[in-house]
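User: Design a sequence. Structure:
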């Protein structure tokens, strides 16, 4: 089958930010090597010109309109030729940005110096010319994590949805176990398909290997590489066996059923398999290593359960459980849980360096929650060549079938793993963050430059809701032969509630099994909100699976398994599905979101770097020895591996171009009239002077200019410094984790 492989955003950039070394940069060899390894631009950046030298420091963000047009202030230091006196001021710069989500960097280009600010004594045509030269034609790359944390507190998060989504916050079935347990999920009632040439049937609508044998009317489940059998497909009563019906030897297994191949002939394991529970509904499993062990989070009154991977807390004799970004509570661990409408304020007081600090991203009102909202609004931009649409082929299980979408005049294709929407006499296909249209559900397809408004009325109760987050981008170049699209995180399953970000809509979407003429089944379940202990990972900013005993994601079928686009649906048989190639952190519904962090993110900061670094070997037999106690430089941190000096600048700009400096162990100081003056302690109480916001217009609904302040207080300057450090640390941990996978 021919597949369309979408091109990345057409505009690509090289390596440098706001001030590149195109002319002559003075950077020491160690720092230069660091930049080469990371692709980042280092600050401060010094450039030498014929008439003098310019040193540019890291920017302070004023606004980031649509996450495309960036406006910043940057401290600059000018030294004119034959004049050793340093002139200190700021440059107000506008640039065009492009986000690379795989690298978590931002490329910045098309720089324009809008104005400069120097004292009357220092301001001259020569100074202005040098500043212009330092930015003209420059490009750069900076960490996305740093820029996001530097956004002003009053930054307006763009809203890329049509109204607030109507999400479901009803709790799933929540099971608590103090012993190891797995979860065997079946999508409602089991649907069985015959295995040709045998008297076996297998369950189509599950990701486990589940068989039924007619002669003895018994069920067989593959669990931990061992076969277990029972008279009923239910929880409990399963016995491990090494005696399988002879028909198991007749299975026509392919490479996608390797787990079944390796388990035939059956053998008794040395240790009994982990027990499992069968569930036909949305279920979450909280696994404890014995009775709950509670640890106090100081100064909050909250206790967390330390012997579980789940986010489970106790506060004021009430249990609180965070899953898929949603909080549920109960007076006891057993029984029915309820959705939490008003989370106790104590949760916002969890220290940012605590083991459980990652839950702050799901606590409304915290700066972490706002950061997650900003991440969810970031546009993923895709460019599609108009001529490539002809390569698309959409497969159907039989003749195309459609069903109405509630509250709309649309119909959705049901017997295909592709997202095909019928509007009037045309068909619209949403694939890999782009749109196509045709006058036939079979194609041929064309790149869509306009999308019917009706599509953006699809409700959250419909499985096609995620396509409403994919739009034709506002920026187009009619001469380059491409159409540009953008999508926010709702397309891949993370939704803004305006106060936090949750995973999944919370709604159950009924799936069906389709049969072809040869009675071969095809099945692709829609995305599921629950069942995989999904939590938010600050490193990389995505929802992922936190682990636990959730079953072997094998599955059996003569046509194997395959994922497809959208926000994580899974296909099983007969139809070869489109490729899944989404931005870091998203996976198929049955497997749960991909876990790209090696373990619980709350523990990343506490780990030794040794697990990321090569281990010693003493023999040729790959005998690895723990090197954690070997001598090494003190105080190694994530940022020591990635661009520690990429933001070594100690200068900061204020909202009006004023310049501040901070040196370790010293007081903040402000530059004024040629001198560095220690900031008056009363300055932190100075009244803020807001500047009216630019109101969004009908033709430009997402453009905001945040309110301004005349000067910065100590606390605001401390926050900027912390934002640089936190952002660089988060970026560095992400890069370390990516390297650890390679």
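Assistant: Done.
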């Amino acid at each position: 089958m021919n597949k369309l492989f979408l091109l990345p955003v057409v505009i690509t950039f090289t390596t440098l930010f706001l001030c590149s070394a195109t002319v002559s940069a003075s950077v020491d060899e160690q720092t230069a090597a660091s930049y080469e390894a990371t692709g980042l631009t280092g600050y401060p950046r010094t450039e030498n010109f014929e008439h003098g030298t310019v040193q540019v420091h890291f920017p302070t963000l004023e606004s980031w309109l649509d996450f495309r047009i960036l406006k910043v202030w940057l401290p600059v230091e000018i030294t004119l030729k034959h004049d050793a006196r340093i002139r200190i001021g700021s440059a107000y710069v506008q640039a065009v940005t492009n986000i690379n989500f795989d690298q978590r960097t931002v490329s910045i280009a098309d720089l324009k110096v809008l104005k400069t600010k120097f004292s009357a004594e220092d301001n001259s045509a020569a100074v202005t010319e040098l500043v212009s030269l330092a930015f003209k034609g420059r490009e750069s790359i900076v960490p996305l994590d740093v820029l996001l944390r530097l956004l002003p507190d009053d930054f307006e998060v763009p809203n890329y949805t049509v109204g607030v989504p109507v999400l479901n916050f009803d709790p799933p079935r929540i099971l608590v176990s103090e012993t190891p347990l797995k979860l065997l999920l079946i999508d409602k009632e089991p649907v069985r398909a015959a295995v040709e040439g045998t008297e076996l049937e297998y369950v189509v609508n599950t990701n486990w290997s589940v068989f039924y044998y007619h002669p003895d009317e018994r069920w067989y489940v593959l669990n931990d590489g061992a076969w277990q059998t029972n008279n009923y497909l239910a929880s409990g009563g399963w016995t491990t066996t090494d005696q399988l019906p002879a028909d198991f030897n007749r299975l026509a297994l392919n490479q996608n059923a390797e787990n079944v191949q390796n388990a035939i002939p059956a053998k008794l394991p040395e240790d009994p398999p982990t027990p499992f529970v069968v569930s036909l509904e949305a279920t979450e499993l909280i696994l404890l290593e014995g009775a709950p062990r509670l640890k106090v989070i100081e100064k909050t009154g909250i206790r967390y359960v330390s012997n579980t991977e789940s986010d489970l807390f106790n506060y004021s004799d009430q249990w609180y459980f965070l899953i898929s970004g949603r909080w549920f509570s109960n007076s006891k661990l057993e029984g029915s849980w309820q959705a939490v409408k008003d989370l106790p304020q104590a949760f916002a007081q969890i220290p940012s360096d605590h083991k459980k600090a990652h839950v702050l991203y799901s606590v409304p009102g915290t700066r972490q929650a706002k950061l997650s909202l900003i991440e969810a609004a970031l546009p993923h931009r895709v460019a599609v060549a108009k001529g490539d649409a002809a390569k698309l082929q959409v497969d159907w299980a039989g003749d195309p079938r459609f069903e109405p979408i509630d509250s709309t005049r649309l119909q959705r294709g049901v017997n295909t793993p592709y997202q095909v929407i019928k509007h009037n006499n045309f068909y619209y296909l949403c694939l890999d963050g782009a749109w196509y249209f045709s006058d036939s559900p079979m194609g041929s397809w064309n790149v869509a430059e306009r999308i019917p408004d009706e599509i953006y009325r699809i409700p959250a109760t419909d499985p096609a809701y995620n396509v409403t987050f994919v739009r034709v981008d506002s920026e187009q170049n009619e001469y380059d032969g491409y159409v540009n699209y953008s999508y926010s995180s709702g397309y891949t399953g993370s939704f803004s509630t305006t106060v936090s970000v949750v995973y999944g809509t919370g709604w159950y979407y009924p799936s069906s099994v389709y049969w072809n003429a040869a009675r071969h089944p095809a099945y692709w379940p829609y995305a599921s909100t629950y069942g995989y202990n999904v939590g938010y990972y600050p490193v990389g900013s995505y929802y992922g699976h936190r682990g636990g005993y959730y079953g072997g994601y094998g599955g059996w079928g003569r046509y194997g398994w395959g994922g497809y686009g959208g926000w994580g649906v899974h296909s099983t048989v007969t139809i070869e599905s489109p490729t899944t190639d989404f931005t870091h952190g998203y996976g198929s519904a049955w497997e749960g979101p991909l876990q790209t962090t090696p373990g619980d993110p709350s523990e990343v900061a506490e780990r030794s770097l040794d697990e990321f670094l090569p281990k010693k070997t003493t023999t040729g037999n790959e005998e690895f020895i723990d090197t954690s106690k070997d001598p090494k430089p003190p105080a190694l941190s994530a940022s020591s591996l990635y661009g520690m000096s990429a933001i070594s600048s100690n200068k900061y700009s204020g909202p009006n171009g004023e310049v501040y400096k901070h040196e370790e162990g010293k007081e903040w100081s402000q530059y004024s009239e040629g001198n560095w003056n220690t900031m008056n302690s009363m300055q932190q109480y100075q009244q803020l002077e807001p500047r009216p916001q630019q109101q969004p217009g009908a033709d430009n609904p997402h453009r905001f200019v945040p309110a301004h302040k005349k000067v910065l207080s100590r606390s605001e300057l401390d926050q900027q410094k912390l934002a640089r450090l936190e952002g660089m640390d988060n970026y560095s941990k992400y890069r370390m984790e990516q390297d650890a996978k390679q």
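The chain has seven helices and 46 strands. Helices lie at 29-38, 125-135, 144-150, 258-262, 367-377, 638-641, 714-741.
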